[in-house]
Structure formats: structure tokens, C-alpha cells
């Protein structure tokens, strides 16, 4: 696509609730659009505070590489008075292709501090590369003899009306968003000294500490950027590389491309060649090509430089045979002569090399290959077959794919809302009774139904909402069937309609959707066409169907969500920072399986944040695997959690292709808001798993984490915004709906990621998404109760102290309290300033005790350290229970379900209290800094403001008119909900 074909399309739909400016409770509105030095305007709508334009405009995009830094500005003016009514600014990061664009209502903002603005304007903004669309030409506004229009003439407006709104079809429109991160030069630091021993860090996630073996340890490793000491990188003399959070690892790469002029090995002239690359005791084998003398392989092999003990690399071509493979030819390379490649250099060009026989005097054809020394920053790293995994592979493509590191992206999820209104003209099969009908809807494996209605007039009415989860690309169809309950447990289908999801309207807000009538078809096959025409079916179904993109479709647990953005990309806010994760190694693993009488493990790691999943390569037969892989995510909200899980692969060796599940080794959660900016967190996290025999440490995961803030102002502004998108408050879903939809979302994500290569297995996705966090257990209930008691322990301590004051246990303290009490009674205006000043001083005092590490799972807080075996047996019991007695099973499952809800409520209460405690504890350094600053400001304000005035204003504000209220939570509530709690420390 040529750059000059890329255009920005803007559909101006309508506006409503504008400020009246012409003296007649109305406005003559006009919208001015400004983008990249181009200015256009709509037509003028006389005397209307709810104008509707339905006009299209197209701007030229001069440079697509800077599109993300541009913005579209839409200003609304009243043409009679020339006054300003409001403006909207749409950042370039929210521009999407036409296929993803929906109409969004933007709230009008003020131009200045003293200006006024009200209302909303509906715009549809998208990017198109259709060459048939021409850029809108500017047209001047007609002159007006009225002197009141002088102010209006200061603006230049242009417009291109398009009342029919004929949009182009955008095919294969590229993403105009350009990465904002500059590539850094790669360099290799030399290990000059061994790292110091790990430093044990005490846990402060709970009042009671846990065993040192279960605590995280701070390390000081030598990474690619330099030595990490106290969270700061002490750099060497060389340039920092792109892989600066992991240790630099060197590999010998061999890329085998193809061969030519290979000799025939038998009388039939056939040859089944394959390549064997041998470096000392390690070797890599390609797949064989049947009956081909000019084969192509395009395979890459990586041999660890630390494990290499050979000085010669041999590339052998052999002929595949049943009994013994025949030798064809080989090429030798001296290791000392192999060149070093450092990104961002381009890949090394492959060359033709002659093949010789074992004696070295005959040429046996040629092979094209490239051989070089590189690091894990090389592009070939993820696609290479590694030498430390060769023992579990048979040389086939399917086996080599299972061990490679890959990046996955979750599908974009939508909520599909189906409003079943009514049916018309039922044709029941039994004329002697009134049909008892309901509508059953299903998409894929999601099935739900409306309530049953007795249709006395053959026109039943429901008006029920059914909500589903749909994933792009839309592969399933919405199937609605009208069914009659003819007997208990027996339904008869009266008609069915199939609606493709791609034909359903999308919306980003709560705007009304037009209803449609759908004709139902009989679900039977009729061979006689004449009979089918004669027996025409006329029942109709009245529906309102839409894809809601203004919600965030939850697939994580609400306590550990890694993404809070809505589905529609146009509602996404700019990123506030970058999260970098270095997965260094796993140490001290417990053997997960037995091979040849020896305990071993085939380990890989999975990290999830937002829509992006990453999987490291699988290190085979190693209890201390080293990964040294680094990944990056954009951060849009600090109140999100990064999750890293460690698994043992059961798909290699003898279990390859079987139904064995990958075994979970452990998991680590890191909340972004608990990280200081630009600090490198290098820690060793214990991998803790709860087994039927109790909690067990499976090993230690070594990580390096860094959060970099790109815009501190934007990050602090996010703290005042609602945690979830606006639709969750305008039209909230029930708790039962959210639980059911989350279960369906996890099922869809697991199915989609399971289709990748290598597949991310279902048990891995479910473990990373914490699908079992809502299930009841005695251990979790006791842990939440202990958390709640810990929250209220401060009030109990104050009560006990007050009793001691009343009992005169310490006369001096009691006298001082009496004096302070009398002072506050005599001067009530000092109560609030004193309280806020005390909170300020406590926050400043707690700064020296602030945590310097991310929180981690606490065994003692989770009540997993000393748990009764009977409670463990109950927790690991299946749900529903496997008891034989039906009555016991029903009562037991009901008890667990109710107890699970009580457990969640207790946990939520404890979470609110812990957030209040974290307000001054520097658990979230930015939030605590804001809190103590506000306390200081409040202390000064309340000092100079009379208490009566404060009380009067507070009461008036609390009883304010509903017109001045908002549906979304207030700024203090949003700030409070983003504070961290000890949910991150729960096992």
C-alpha cells in the first residue's frame, strides 16, 4: 500500500444536550474538524440542541509513521453568536481500521478554565486505504450580513456532506500505530565477578511472618545491562543491550537451507536425505525428504556455547534407511573461525559449501547453510532446535515445535446481548392445548434459555436479556430456537433461526439498538419441494441483538486481573508505561517424573499480562534450567497483575501425543502498582503448590522485573478514573452473570490458544486465569477471617487502650489524655487539622519501613502451613462431591456453594480494610505520596476554614440534586479501589 493512499475517515453522526446559545433555548450548531494541518466543517443545523448530521469527511495522512502522535480535534460552535460549545480530542492511538470502527459518543470538554461545555457528540473515526476515496476539499463558509457573525468569521470551516453515509470497505488495512519504543543497541557484558549470595527478605504481607524457606530472596545478579545492586543497575563500559534484564547466553547457530546435486545411493536412483549437525556430543537432525536430490529443509539449530567442548562443527547429509542410514557427504567448520553476529545486524547470508566424503578426496554435492555465534537476542533463537532439548526429540517437526518459545495473543472478546422481546403467529403441533414456549439460544457450547410463557393468544412476550461471550474472528453462529414444553423434560422445536455474528451491529456505549423481526424456519428436512412451499411457515421472532464493546470481558479473576480495557480499541487510553520481565532461571526443582530410574523435569514458563501471553522454550531433563528470555508489555493501568507460571511438560518422550496434562510447578503474581518506576527487581521467588499432603516448595523462580513510566501525569490521572469501563456502571451485569461469562471466556481463550503451534494447553490457561479461585474451602475461609480480624485489630487496640485510660493504669498518660480532650472540646476547629496532621506524620514515618520488593504468596497468611488433613481432603474433593449418597451430595454441595459466597464477602471486606491500611504504608508509593500530600493540604485548609462551614458544605454536597450526580464512582472512590491489598499474598 502506498503511503499517499492512507486516509483518516470521520463520520459525524449527531450531538445532543448542547448548551443553548441563541436566546431561544436552542443552538445553531456546526462542528469544525482539525487534523494534521487540515480543517473541515459540517453543515449548520439551525435551532437544534440535538442536531443530526450523518456526514463523512476524509483527511490525508501525510506520514503514517507519526500517526500515533497526532490527534483529531472536533470543536462545536454556535453560528449565530460565534460562541464555543465544547470540543473533543481523539488521540491517534485509538485510530482503528474501518472494520473495527464503531460510533462513540464523546463528552464535550471545556476550552479553558472559565468556558462552559455540555453534551456529547457522536463520531466514528477510522483509517482506510481505499484508493477510490478522495480527500475532502475545503469549502469556505458563506458570508453573513449579520454583524453578530463577526466572531464566527475568525474560523475557517470546510465541509463535505454525505447524508447516506456510504462507507468504504476496508480490506487488509494495516495498523497505523507505530511502536513508541526505540530499539537499543545490543552489547555483551563480561562476567568479572561472581554474584553475592542471595539476601533474605522478610515478608510483610501479614502480621505473622512465615518460614525463611518460603520467603522471597533478593539477588544481585550480573545481567546484560550490568550488576544489579539494590534495584539499581551498575553498568560496565560497554553499551547496554536490548536483553539487559537477563544473563547473556551465547549460542552456535547453524541454519541449514537446502542442498543440490546430491548423488544417488542405490540402483533405483532414489535418495531420502536429511541433515545431521554434530558439535561434540550434541547433534541436531532435520526431517528427511523422500526421493529428492535437491532437498530444502530451512531448519535452525542452536548449541549452547557454555556446554560446547568441540573445536569442529560437522554438517553431515545422510540417506534415510530402515536398518542403517547411509552417509552421503559432510562439511567441516573450525569453531575458532565462526563469525560473531550482534543484532541489529541483518541475518547472516547463507552460502553454498561443498560436501566431501569421509576420505576428503571426492565431492558429493553442495549444501547451503549459514553458521554464526549469537545470543538469545538473535531472531533465530525462538525458531531454533536447542541442544539442551535434543534428547527428547526424534527429529520430526512436530517434536521440535513443542519446545520452542512463542508469543500468543488472546482473541478479542465481546459480550453478545440478545434481547428476546416476543414471538408472533405461533403454529403449535397440538391444537388442544395452549403452548408453553420458551426461546433457547446457543453459540458454540454456550446454551441458555428464557423463561417459559403460556401463549394463550399465540403471541408470547418475554422481554429478557441473554448475554454470551463471542470471540473474533467470529466463527460460530447465534442459533435461536422456539420450543414448546409438551411434557416434563421434553421440548418440541417449533422453529429456528441462524444469525451470523458478523452481521450483528456493534456498539461502544449504551445507545439504543433497533429491533428486528426474524422469520423462523422449521427444523425438519422436507424432500418434497411442493409440500415445502404449500406448508409455508410464518412464525416470527422479535429481537434486539448487538455486540457490546464498551465492557471489559473478564477472563481473569477479579482480584488478579491483568487487563481492564474495554473491547473497542477506540476507547483505549494511551499507555502509561512499559513493563519488562526477564525470566532468568528456575533452581532447585523437585523431580516431576522419572526417566531411566532418574528424577527429571521438562520445564517451561508461561507469563500473562493483558492480551499477551508468552511461553519460554522447554528445557528438557534439567532440574536447574536457565531460560534468560526477556519480554515487554505496554501498561495501561497500574492496578493490574503480572502472572508467571512454571510447568512441567508431559508431551515429550514416551508421553508425546498422549492425554497427559502438563503439571503445575508454581506461580508468581506481581502487582504493577507495587513497583517503583525505573527500579530493577531481581528476586528469587519460591514456587509453592498446595498438595493433598500440604503445602510444598517445588523450586525457586529467578526473575528480573522493571516498570518504566512513559507519562507520570497520565499515570496519576488513571488513579482518579473508574477501575472498569463506563458500561459496567451505566448498565451493570449481575454477579451471577459475570461468573458465568468469565467461565465461558476462559473456555474460549483456552480453545483458541490450544489451536496455536505449539499449543498452550487448557490446564495451563485455567491455572493462569485462576479458574478455581471462587471454590469454597475451609482453609480459604479461615484465611479471610484472619485477614478481617487483622484489619479490625487496630480498633480493638484503641478500645483496649481507652479502657486502660479509664482504669488509670498509667496516671501520667491519663492526665495528658484529659488535657487533650478538654482542648479539643474547647477548640473543636482543631479536631480535623490534628487528625489529618497525625495521618501525615504517620505516613512520613512509615516511609522508612516501606516495602522494597514485590509481594508474594504467604503460606502462613493463606492458612496452609498447619492445616488439618481432613480439611485438605475436603478441599481437594471434586465439585460436586464424589459421595455416593444423593442426599448427602446435594446438601454438601449446597453448603460449599453458600460458604464460597460467604468466603468471598469476607474477603472483600478484608480487602477494603487492607486498602485503607495501605493508604499510609507506602505499599503503593505513588498512592501514599498523594494521600499524605492531601492530608497535609487538608490539615491546612481545615485550619483556616470554620468547622461550621465545612459541615454545611459537606451536608449540602451529600444531599445534592441528582442532576449533579454521576453514574460512575467519584475520584476518591476510584483512588481507593486502586490501592493494593493482601490478595496478592494469598496462596
UniProtKB/TrEMBL annotation:
<feature type="transmembrane region" description="Helical">
    <location>
        <begin position="785"/>
        <end position="802"/>
    </location>
</feature>
<keyword id="KW-0677">Repeat</keyword>
<dbReference type="InterPro" id="IPR047259">
    <property type="entry name" value="QUIRKY-like"/>
</dbReference>
<feature type="domain" description="C2">
    <location>
        <begin position="397"/>
        <end position="518"/>
    </location>
</feature>
<dbReference type="InterPro" id="IPR047255">
    <property type="entry name" value="C2D_MCTP_PRT_plant"/>
</dbReference>
<protein>
    <recommendedName>
        <fullName>C2 domain-containing protein</fullName>
    </recommendedName>
</protein>
<keyword id="KW-0106">Calcium</keyword>
<dbReference type="InterPro" id="IPR035892">
    <property type="entry name" value="C2_domain_sf"/>
</dbReference>
<feature type="domain" description="C2">
    <location>
        <begin position="560"/>
        <end position="685"/>
    </location>
</feature>
<dbReference type="InterPro" id="IPR000008">
    <property type="entry name" value="C2_dom"/>
</dbReference>
<comment type="similarity">
    <text>Belongs to the MCTP family.</text>
</comment>
<dbReference type="Pfam" id="PF00168">
    <property type="entry name" value="C2"/>
</dbReference>
<feature type="transmembrane region" description="Helical">
    <location>
        <begin position="929"/>
        <end position="957"/>
    </location>
</feature>
<feature type="domain" description="C2">
    <location>
        <begin position="235"/>
        <end position="353"/>
    </location>
</feature>
<keyword id="KW-0472">Membrane</keyword>
<dbReference type="InterPro" id="IPR047257">
    <property type="entry name" value="C2B_MCTP_PRT_plant"/>
</dbReference>
<feature type="transmembrane region" description="Helical">
    <location>
        <begin position="822"/>
        <end position="847"/>
    </location>
</feature>
<dbReference type="InterPro" id="IPR047258">
    <property type="entry name" value="C2C_MCTP_PRT_plant"/>
</dbReference>
<keyword id="KW-0812">Transmembrane</keyword>
<dbReference type="GO" id="GO:0016020">
    <property type="term" value="C:membrane"/>
</dbReference>
<feature type="domain" description="C2">
    <location>
        <begin position="1"/>
        <end position="106"/>
    </location>
</feature>
<keyword id="KW-1133">Transmembrane helix</keyword>
<dbReference type="InterPro" id="IPR013583">
    <property type="entry name" value="MCTP_C"/>
</dbReference>
<dbReference type="Pfam" id="PF08372">
    <property type="entry name" value="PRT_C"/>
</dbReference>
Amino acid at each position: 500500500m502506498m503511503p499517499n493512499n492512507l486516509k483518516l475517515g470521520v463520520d459525524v453522526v449527531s450531538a445532543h444536550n448542547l448548551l443553548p446559545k441563541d436566546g431561544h433555548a436552542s443552538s445553531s450548531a456546526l462542528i469544525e474538524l482539525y487534523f494534521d494541518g487540515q480543517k473541515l466543517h459540517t453543515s449548520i443545523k439551525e435551532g437544534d440542541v440535538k442536531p443530526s448530521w450523518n456526514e463523512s469527511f476524509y483527511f490525508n495522512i501525510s506520514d503514517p509513521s507519526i500517526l500515533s502522535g497526532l490527534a483529531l480535534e472536533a470543536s462545536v460552535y454556535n453560528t449565530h453568536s460565534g460562541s464555543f460549545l465544547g470540543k473533543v480530542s481523539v488521540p491517534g492511538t485509538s485510530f482503528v481500521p474501518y472494520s473495527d470502527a464503531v460510533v462513540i459518543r464523546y463528552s464535550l470538554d471545556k476550552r479553558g478554565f472559565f468556558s462552559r461545555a455540555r453534551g456529547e457528540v457522536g463520531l466514528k473515526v477510522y483509517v482506510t486505504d481505499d484508493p477510490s476515496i478522495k480527500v475532502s476539499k475545503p469549502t469556505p463558509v458563506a458570508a453573513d450580513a449579520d454583524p453578530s457573525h463577526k466572531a464566527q468569521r475568525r474560523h475557517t470551516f470546510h465541509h463535505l456532506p454525505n447524508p447516506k453515509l456510504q462507507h468504504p470497505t476496508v480490506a487488509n488495512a494495516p495498523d497505523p500505530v507505530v511502536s513508541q519504543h526505540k530499539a537499543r543497541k545490543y552489547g555483551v557484558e563480561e562476567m568479572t565477578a561472581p554474584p553475592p549470595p542471595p539476601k533474605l527478605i522478610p515478608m510483610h504481607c501479614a502480621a505473622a511472618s512465615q518460614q525463611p524457606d518460603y520467603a522471597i530472596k533478593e539477588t544481585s545478579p550480573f545481567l546484560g545491562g550490568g550488576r544489579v545492586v539494590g534495584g539499581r543497575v551498575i553498568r560496565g563500559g560497554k553499551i547496554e543491550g536490548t536483553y539487559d534484564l537477563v544473563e547473556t547466553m551465547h549460542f552456535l547457530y547453524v541454519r541449514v537451507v537446502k542442498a543440490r546435486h546430491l548423488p544417488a545411493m542405490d540402483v533405483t536412483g532414489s535418495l531420502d536425505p536429511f541433515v545431521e549437525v554434530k558439535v561434540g556430543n550434541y547433534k541436531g537432525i532435520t526431517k528427511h525428504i523422500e526421493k529428492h536430490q535437491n532437498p530444502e529443509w530451512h531448519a535452525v539449530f542452536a548449541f549452547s556455547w557454555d556446554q560446547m567442548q568441540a573445536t569442529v562443527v560437522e554438517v553431515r547429509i545422510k540417506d534415510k534407511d530402515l536398518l542403517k542410514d547411509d552417509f552421503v557427504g559432510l562439511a567441516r567448520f573450525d569453531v575458532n573461525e565462526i563469525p560473531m553476529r550482534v543484532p541489529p545486524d541483518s541475518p547472516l547470508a547463507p552460502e553454498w559449501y561443498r560436501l566431501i566424503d569421509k576420505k576428503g578426496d571426492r565431492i558429493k554435492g553442495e549444501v547451503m547453510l549459514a553458521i554464526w555465534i549469537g545470543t538469545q537476542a538473535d531472531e533465530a533463537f525462538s525458531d531454533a532446535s536447542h541442544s539442551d532439548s535434543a534428547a527428547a526429540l526424534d527429529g520430526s517437526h512436530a517434536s521440535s515445535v513443542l519446545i520452542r518459545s512463542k508469543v500468543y495473543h488472546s482473541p478479542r472478546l465481546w459480550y453478545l446481548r440478545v434481547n428476546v422481546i416476543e414471538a408472533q403467529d405461533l403454529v403449535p403441533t397440538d391444537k388442544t392445548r395452549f403452548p408453553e414456549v420458551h426461546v433457547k439460544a446457543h453459540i458454540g457450547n454456550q446454551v441458555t434459555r428464557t423463561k417459559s410463557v403460556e401463549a394463550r393468544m399465540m403471541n408470547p412476550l418475554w422481554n429478557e436479556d441473554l448475554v454470551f461471550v463471542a470471540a473474533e474472528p467470529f466463527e460460530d453462529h447465534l442459533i435461536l430456537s422456539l420450543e414448546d414444553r409438551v411434557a416434563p423434560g421434553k421440548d418440541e422445536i417449533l422453529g429456528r433461526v441462524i444469525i451470523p455474528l458478523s452481521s450483528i451491529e456493534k456498539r461502544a456505549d449504551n445507545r439504543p439498538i433497533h429491533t428486528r423481526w426474524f422469520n423462523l424456519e422449521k427444523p425438519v428436512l422436507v424432500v418434497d419441494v411442493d409440500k415445502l412451499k404449500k406448508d409455508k411457515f410464518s412464525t416470527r421472532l422479535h429481537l434486539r441483538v448487538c455486540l457490546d464493546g464498551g465492557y471489559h470481558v473478564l477472563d481473569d479473576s477479579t482480584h488478579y486481573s491483568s487487563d481492564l480495557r474495554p473491547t473497542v480499541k477506540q476507547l483505549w487510553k494511551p499507555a502509561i508505561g512499559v513493563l519488562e520481565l526477564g525470566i532468568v532461571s528456575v533452581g532447585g526443582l523437585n523431580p516431576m517424573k522419572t526417566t531411566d530410574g532418574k528424577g527429571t523435569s521438562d520445564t517451561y514458563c508461561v507469563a500473562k499480562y493483558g492480551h499477551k501471553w508468552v511461553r519460554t522454550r522447554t528445557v528438557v531433563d534439567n532440574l536447574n534450567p536457565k531460560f534468560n528470555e526477556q519480554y515487554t508489555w505496554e501498561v495501561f493501568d497500574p492496578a493490574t497483575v503480572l502472572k508467571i507460571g512454571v510447568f512441567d511438560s508431559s508431551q515429550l518422550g514416551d508421553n508425546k501425543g498422549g492425554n497427559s496434562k502438563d503439571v503445575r510447578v508454581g506461580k508468581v503474581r506481581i502487582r504493577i502498582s507495587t513497583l517503583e518506576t525505573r527500579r530493577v527487581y531481581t528476586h528469587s521467588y519460591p514456587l509453592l503448590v498446595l498438595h493433598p499432603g500440604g503445602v510444598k516448595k517445588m523450586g525457586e523462580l529467578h526473575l528480573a522485573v522493571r516498570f518504566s513510566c512513559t507519562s507520570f501525569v497520565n499515570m496519576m490521572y488513571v488513579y482518579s478514573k473508574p477501575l472498569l469501563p463506563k458500561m459496567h456502571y451505566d448498565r451493570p451485569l449481575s454477579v451471577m452473570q459475570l461468573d458465568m461469562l468469565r467461565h465461558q471466556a476462559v473456555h474460549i481463550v483456552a480453545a483458541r490458544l490450544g489451536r496455536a503451534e505449539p499449543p498452550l494447553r487448557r490446564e495451563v490457561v485455567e491455572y493462569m486465569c485462576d479458574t478455581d479461585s471462587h471454590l469454597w474451602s475451609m482453609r480459604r475461609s479461615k484465611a479471610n477471617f484472619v485477614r478481617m480480624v487483622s484489619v479490625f485489630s487496630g480498633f480493638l487496640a484503641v478500645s483496649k487502650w481507652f479502657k486502660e485510660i479509664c482504669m488509670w493504669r498509667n496516671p501520667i498518660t491519663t492526665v495528658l489524655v484529659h488535657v487533650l480532650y478538654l482542648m479539643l472540646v474547647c477548640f473543636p476547629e482543631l479536631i480535623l487539622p490534628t487528625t489529618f496532621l497525625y495521618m501525615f506524620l504517620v505516613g512520613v514515618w512509615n516511609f522508612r519501613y516501606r516495602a522494597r520488593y514485590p509481594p508474594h504468596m504467604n503460606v502462613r497468611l493463606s492458612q496452609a502451613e498447619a492445616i488439618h488433613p481432613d480439611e485438605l481432603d475436603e478441599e481437594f474433593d471434586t465439585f460436586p462431591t464424589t459421595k455416593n449418597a444423593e442426599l448427602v451430595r446435594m446438601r454438601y454441595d449446597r453448603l460449599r456453594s453458600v460458604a464460597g459466597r460467604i468466603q468471598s464477602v469476607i474477603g472483600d471486606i478484608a480487602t477494603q480494610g487492607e486498602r485503607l491500611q495501605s493508604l499510609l504504608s507506602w505499599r503503593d508509593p505513588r498512592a501514599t505520596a498523594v494521600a499524605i500530600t492531601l492530608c497535609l493540604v487538608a490539615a491546612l485548609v481545615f485550619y483556616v476554614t470554620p468547622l461550621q462551614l465545612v459541615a454545611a458544605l459537606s451536608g449540602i454536597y451529600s444531599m445534592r440534586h441528582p442532576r449533579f450526580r454521576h453514574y460512575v464512582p467519584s475520584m476518591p472512590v476510584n483512588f481507593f479501589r486502586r490501592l493494593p491489598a493482601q490478595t496478592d499474598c494469598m496462596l
